[in-house]
Specification:
Elements lengths: L1 H14 L7 E12 L5 E6 L9 E6 L14 E9 L2 E9 L9 H23 L13 E3 L5 E3 L7 E7 L6 H17 L8 E7 L7 H8 L9 E4 L3 H10 L4 E4 L2 E4 L2 E5 L5 E6 L5 H13 L1
Helix pairs in contact: 3-6
């Protein structure tokens, strides 16, 4: 942490900002990890104007209460304070999923999503999603080549999981989430299959048969040996979506749904469960990179 503080002040010297007086900067990013004593956390953050470019780095807090509710995969906003004693984060806020779309179609969609979210919270109370650190139970589905796939076959590898349906009409939802995996496929090209597996699960298996998923996968040149698009019986899909807190409801031929992306460690335990689509592909990649290196 001391090296990071030194780096901050070195950057301030380069940019001409003063470090002798208190300065405060607003920061947003994706939490990569939280230390065991909850005195600091690592964040893949956006650029901090006048201080540093977007990067992944640790931040200290001076009150452990600052990190209440903060877990890997949380989107957060906080104030970075630079003073003569060093650097620390304060006023840490977890940012719940919200879309900033303003057009009428999106507004209608967001209203439906809010209704879905209300129902999701009620369902979650009865069937809570896995928490970070929990062992992910085994499951079996089929991929886009109709090959059986079990989660247990990937033990010893890092697994990233997202949830989509191919008929989703809004690019900021399923398409964006799937595209994030397309970026991961390029970033970790040399580690796929050997160290990392990508699983994209449809929650609309009646329409998303393997052949439909295979066609959908072509948009990202997905290699079916390391990026599996999974379908199967609705009961099996529902059990899996419940595990990860994904809720979906039919509406005039489409599905209102929540958005979740999971990262599971080599030991089969959930590392992070990211809510929504506010994170970038780069931030997701930084999280995966950290888990790969553990």
């Amino acid at each position: 942490m001391t090296r990071i503080v030194a780096a901050v002040f070195a950057l301030l010297a380069i940019t001409g900002s003063g470090a002798s007086a208190d300065t405060r900067h607003e920061v947003t990013g994706l939490v990569i990890s939280v230390d065991d004593k909850r005195t600091g956390f690592v964040v893949s953050h956006e650029a901090i104007a006048g201080v540093m470019a977007a990067m992944t780095m640790p931040f200290e807090v001076r009150d452990v209460k600052e990190l209440t509710g903060v877990v890997p995969g949380s989107m957060v906003a906080f104030t970075l304070v630079l003073d003569e004693q060093g650097a620390h984060a304060e006023k840490v806020r977890v940012q719940r999923y919200q879309s900033v779309e303003q057009d009428p179609l999106a507004a209608t969609r967001l209203s439906l999503l809010r209704d879905a979210a209300d129902r999701a919270r009620a369902a979650a109370a009865a069937s809570p999603a896995l928490a970070p650190g929990a062992l992910v139970p085994d499951f079996e589905l089929i991929d886009q080549l109709r090959r059986p796939v079990t989660f247990s076959q990937f033990r010893g590898k890092v697994v990233a999981i997202n949830f989509i349906y191919t008929a989703c009409a809004y690019p900021q939802f399923c398409f964006r989430i799937a595209n994030h995996f397309g970026v991961l496929q390029r970033r970790f090209a040399t580690r796929l299959s050997r160290d990392l597996v990508l699983l994209t699960v449809t929650f609309d298996p009646a329409r998303d048969q393997p052949e439909v998923l295979a066609e959908y996968a072509k948009q990202w040149n997905a290699n079916p040996d390391h990026w599996r698009f999974l379908s199967g019986p609705m009961t099996a899909v529902q059990q899996l979506t419940d595990l990860f807190g994904v809720r979906f409801y039919p509406d005039e031929g489409l599905l209102n749904h929540t958005v979740r992306t999971a990262v599971v460690g080599r030991d089969g335990r959930l590392v992070a469960l990211i809510e929504g689509n506010q994170h970038t592909a780069a931030q997701l990649g930084d999280l995966v990179q950290t888990v790969l290196e553990k």
